[in-house]
TrEMBL record:
UniProt signal peptide: none
Coiled coil (residue ranges): none
Pfam families from the UniProt entry: PP-binding (PF00550)
Domain Carrier per the UniProt entry, residue ranges: 4-84
Protein's UniProt name: Acyl carrier protein
Amino acid sequence: MTEKNVQEILLDVIENKLNIPLERERIDGNTLLGDEGLYLDSIRLIELVARIEEQFGVVIPDHELAELANANLERLVAIIVGRAEVR
């Protein structure tokens, strides 16, 4: 699975499962997950991580949530791809 595919799946999950409307033409790998980006608060971030673990079969430990709150989309995609390859 390519990074582009993972990013598209993530955006689908955010939009369709978390019910957050997105302006995809304004989103790229540098878009932040938290404030001034996708505006995922801590609860939405937990929901997203649960969906990621379900969708991709990877584990993102709770202690990494704080890092993700300040990460961009590219970083999250890299985490998913890296952990999916290890499986």
